[in-house]
Task: inverse folding
C-alpha cells in the first residue's frame, strides 16, 4: 500500500438523501429482526433474448411476448406472482425478469434463483416450439443469463438485502462499495471485449457509487427507498453492481460474503465504532471498478481515502482491499462464533472459499478457480479454444473477435448453450443444489419467510379460479363469492420474516375457499 497525493476531503462527497434514518433510536438496532443479524435476501435476474435459424427476422419483443403467452393466459398480465412466492414479469426492453421470493439465507436465495432459470427455460422452450412450427425446425431461441447483448446494451442482475435503517447511505458508500467494486475478483462473470478479456460484464456501464438514478447514470447501489417492510426499521439495499452468474458457487459466495460485510457494518454503526475497512473508501468508484475489471491479477491500483489521521490518500490493489475485508470478516465470525443465530451456519466454509480464491489470484493460479469462478471458467475455455484453433489452422492465424464473442454468449445461453452445461455434466463445475431441490423450489416457496404465506394465497386463489392480485406486502382477492356476493378481501404482511399463519390470515384464506 503506497501513499499518493491530493486526499479528497469529506466535504467533496455529494450529500446523499436518506429518509427515515434520523427517526430511528440507536438503542433499537438489535431489536429489529429478532435481536440478531438475520437478513432477507433476494435476486432479480433480467434475461436477454435472440433468435437464430429463421428466414424472416424475429424481433426480441415478439419472441418475449410469445414466451409470456402462458403467463398472460393465467394472469391476464405479463406481470405476476407465482406459487413459489416469486415475481415473474416482462421488464422494459423486452427482458424477461424473475425476482426470487424472500429468503433467509444465501443458499436458499441460490435455490430460488435456479428455480427461476428452470421456469424461464420452460417458457423459452415453448416459444421455440411455436417458432419452429412457423419458421422451420432450424429456429432457435437463445435466452442469455448475462448482462450485455450483441449491441452492447446492458441489463442487470440485482441483489436485495434487508438492512437496518440505522445504516446510512453514506455508510454504504464508504464501507460497502469498496467491497462490491473488488469482489468481482471472484464474482465476475467475465466478458470478451475488442481490447481484451475483463472480469466483469457490468463494470463498463456503472458510473456512480450510490444514487437514485437508473437511466441518466447507473449507480452501483440504487437508493430508491422501497423497503417492502417497516420503513422505520429497515431499508432494502438494492445492489445493481453484480453480474449474472452461471456458477452456483459464485452466486452463493457473492451473497454470503456481502452478508458478512453488511453484518460488520451494522455492528460498527450500532456500537458507534470505526469499521476496520474505513480507510478503503474509494475516491473514484467508477474509475476503480473499470480498473479492477481489466486486471485478472488483482493488482489494479485504486485510490482510496486512507487513514483519518493522514493528510494523503493511499493507493491499494484490488487484492489488498479484498484481503482487508476478509480479515475483518474472519475476526467478526470468530467473535460471534457462539451466537448461533447471528449469521450464516456455513460462515466458516464461506471464509475458507473466499481465502482460497484470493490466494489463487495472488499466486497467479487463477486457473484453479475455473470450477466455480465464472470468469476463470470462461477464460480457461477461451484459451483452450485458441490453442485448438492454432493447431487446426494455418500458422499465425487466430480466432476472430466475433468467434470469441460467440463463445462468450454460448456460456450464458440457458436453453441452447452447451459450454456451461457440458462443464456441469462432466463435473468440472461445482454444484451446491441438486436437480430435485431446484424442482421443489419451482413450485414451493421458502418455508421461513412471508413468501410461504403468499404462496398459500396464490395456490388457493388459483384453485378457486378467482380474480386476485398481490405484491410483496399485500394480498388481494376479488370477484363473486359462492354466495353470489361481491368479494373483496385484503391482507397485509409488512414483516418479511413472518412465515407462520395467524388467525387473521387463516380467516382471510377462508374467504377464498
Result:
Amino acid at each position: 500500500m503506497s501513499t499518493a497525493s491530493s486526499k479528497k476531503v469529506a466535504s467533496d462527497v455529494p450529500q446523499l438523501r436518506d429518509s427515515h434514518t434520523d427517526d430511528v433510536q440507536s438503542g433499537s438496532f438489535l431489536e429489529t429482526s429478532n435481536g440478531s443479524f438475520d437478513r432477507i435476501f433476494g435476486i432479480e435476474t433480467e434475461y436477454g433474448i435472440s433468435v437464430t435459424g429463421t428466414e424472416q427476422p424475429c424481433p426480441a419483443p415478439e419472441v418475449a411476448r410469445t414466451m409470456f403467452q402462458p403467463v398472460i393466459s393465467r394472469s391476464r398480465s405479463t406481470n405476476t406472482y407465482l406459487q413459489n412466492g416469486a415475481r415473474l414479469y416482462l421488464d422494459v426492453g423486452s427482458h424477461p425478469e424473475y425476482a426470487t421470493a424472500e429468503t433467509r439465507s444465501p443458499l436458499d436465495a441460490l435455490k430460488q434463483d435456479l428455480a427461476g432459470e428452470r421456469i424461464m427455460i420452460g417458457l423459452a422452450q415453448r416459444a421455440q416450439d411455436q417458432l419452429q412450427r412457423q419458421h422451420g425446425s432450424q429456429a432457435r431461441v437463445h435466452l442469455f443469463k448475462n448482462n450485455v447483448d450483441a449491441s452492447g446494451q446492458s441489463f442487470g442482475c440485482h441483489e436485495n438485502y434487508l438492512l437496518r435503517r440505522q445504516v446510512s447511505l453514506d455508510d454504504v458508500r464508504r464501507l460497502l462499495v469498496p467491497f462490491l467494486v473488488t469482489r468481482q475478483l471472484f464474482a465476475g462473470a467475465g466478458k470478451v471485449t475488442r481490447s481484451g478479456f475483463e472480469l466483469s460484464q457490468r463494470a463498463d456501464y456503472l458510473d456512480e457509487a450510490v444514487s437514485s438514478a437508473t437511466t441518466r447514470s447507473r449507480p452501483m447501489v440504487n437508493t430508491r427507498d422501497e423497503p417492502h417492510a417497516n420503513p422505520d426499521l429497515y431499508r432494502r439495499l438494492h445492489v445493481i453492481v453484480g453480474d449474472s452468474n452461471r456458477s452456483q458457487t459464485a452466486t452463493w459466495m457473492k451473497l454470503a460474503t456481502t452478508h458478512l460485510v453488511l453484518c460488520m457494518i451494522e455492528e460498527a454503526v450500532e456500537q458507534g465504532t470505526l469499521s476496520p475497512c474505513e480507510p478503503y473508501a474509494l475516491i473514484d468508484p467508477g474509475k476503480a471498478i473499470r480498473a479492477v475489471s481489466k486486471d485478472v491479477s488483482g493488482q489494479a491500483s485504486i485510490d482510496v481515502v486512507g487513514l483519518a489521521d493522514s493528510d494523503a490518500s493511499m493507493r491499494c490493489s484490488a487484492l489488498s482491499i479484498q484481503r482487508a475485508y476478509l480479515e475483518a470478516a474472519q475476526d467478526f465470525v470468530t467473535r460471534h462464533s457462539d451466537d448461533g443465530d447471528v449469521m450464516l451456519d456455513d460462515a466458516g466454509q464461506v471464509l475458507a472459499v473466499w481465502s482460497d480464491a484470493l490466494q489463487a489470484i495472488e499466486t497467479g493460479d487463477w486457473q484453479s478457480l475455473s470450477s466455480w469462478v465464472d470468469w476463470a471458467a470462461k477464460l480457461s475455455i477461451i484459451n483452450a479454444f485458441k490453442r485448438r484453433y492454432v493447431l487446426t489452422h494455418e500458422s499465425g492465424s487466430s480466432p476472430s473477435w466475433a468467434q470469441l464473442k460467440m463463445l462468450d454468449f454460448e456460456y450464458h445461453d440457458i436453453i441452447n448453450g452447451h459450454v456451461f452445461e457440458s462443464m456441469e455434466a462432466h463435473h468440472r463445475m461445482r454444484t451446491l443444489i441438486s436437480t430435485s431441490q431446484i424442482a421443489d423450489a419451482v413450485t414451493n416457496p421458502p418455508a421461513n419467510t412471508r413468501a410461504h404465506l403468499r404462496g398459500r394465497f396464490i395456490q388457493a386463489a388459483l384453485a378457486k379460479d378467482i380474480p386476485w392480485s398481490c405484491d410483496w406486502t399485500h394480498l388481494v382477492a376479488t370477484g363473486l363469492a359462492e354466495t353470489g356476493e361481491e368479494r373483496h378481501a385484503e391482507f397485509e404482511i409488512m414483516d418479511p420474516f413472518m412465515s407462520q399463519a395467524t388467525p387473521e390470515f387463516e380467516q382471510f384464506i377462508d374467504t377464498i375457499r
Q: What stands out?
A: The chain has a mean pLDDT of 89. The longest helix spans residues 106-135.
